[in-house]
Design goal:
Layout: H1 2-6, H2 20-42, H3 46-72, H4 78-97, H5 109-133, H6 138-164, H7 166-190, H8 198-224, H9 231-264, H10 267-280, H11 282-304, H12 314-338, H13 344-361, H14 365-390
Length: 399
Amino acid sequence: MWRIVRSRPIVTAETHRPTLFEVFFDLVLVFGLIRVTTFMSERPTSVTLVQGLLVLMLLWNSWLVYAWLGNYVRLDVGLIRAGVAVAMAAVFLIALVLPEAWETGRGTRTPRLILVLAYVVVRSTQFALFYWASVDDPRRLRTVRLYALTTALSSIPLVLGAVFGGTAQILLWAAALIVDMGGGVLALLVGGWPVRSPGHFAERHGLVVIIALGESLISVGAGVGTQMIHWPTLAAALLTLTVTGCLYWLYFPSAASAGNALTTDSGLHRGLMAGNAYSVAHLPLLAGTIYVALGVEEVLAGLAHGKTQHTLHWIPAVALFGGTALYLAGRATFLALSVRCVRPEQFLAPAVALLLLPVGRYLPGLAALGLLTAFLAVLLSYEAWTRGRSGASVDPAES
């Protein structure tokens, strides 16, 4: 124990890659994402979609700060590892209580307060570790102090929202998250935060996208449950796999070129690109995927109960097509902030997905899922065709 306390942080090198300990942290995030989807699917309403987004942002902030820390120092050594283990336990606790964090009535305040307290532990541990690792770097210490100040301010509406509950909780937590995330961007602009290993940073975010896409496949099992398998559910499951594959291929070629752009950049400008293109633009990518998973689960649940001819309700339609639009908008923003080149189809794709929403709303669930699959397949094929037509091996936005 004394050896751990006396250990010094190990600064990462340019060639640093994610460690197994960081992947273990991702498993905790997987549990959190599953809990968010389960919470929204149990009572699918417009209010629940907003509540799910807010707790998703809490989980995103909880994971994101340790992605930055792991880019600066190794997370699997000494006191840093012990601190990150405490943070993981707090994130796990957030995921456990989040389905009850929006309950109203007498005796419902405790889960909300537990969630806020766990989140405060996550952020306090992060700042303590950052401060300890940056003690010999005055510039980075100023950045940590500025970010810590805005995070401390954001904890006030978080606590008040947990106390009051209801609509006040939604408004106060939304304000808290805006202040917290805005403080991170402000600290990056004012103090600067260089990225030591661009490969590590890009790979960490790519792993999170894969985790979120995996949630769409998990939702197939959640939607079917223990009902007897028949051809509509099997068809919907295969369509879901196709949708997930299309979303994968729409992101990762672009992610490779964005990673190259991050590598060729340097200094504080690299840190600014990382903060904008990855920390900010990946949130809609993550949220869009989770909404798609919710829509898939709702469609599969209806099919498993024999509702093959029922038209899709608004909430699963919004989740499917609105989630896809959010994902595609996040991808376009990601490209604009990294490689600074967005092709016309990449810019227009989110709008087309939204235009399909009212059409999908009046189709049976299986047909709506088929429409979404066809749209993504056509988009992916068109992007591949334009690359071939230009005679390039990659998209201009991916070079």
